[in-house]
Amino acid sequence: MNRIVMTFGLLLVMGFAASAHAADVSEGKSLFQGEKYRCYSCHGKNGEGVSAPGFKGVGKKFSQEEMMKRAAHNCPPTGACNPKELEAIVSYLRTI
Question: What is the pTM of this model?
Answer without folding.
Answer: 0.74
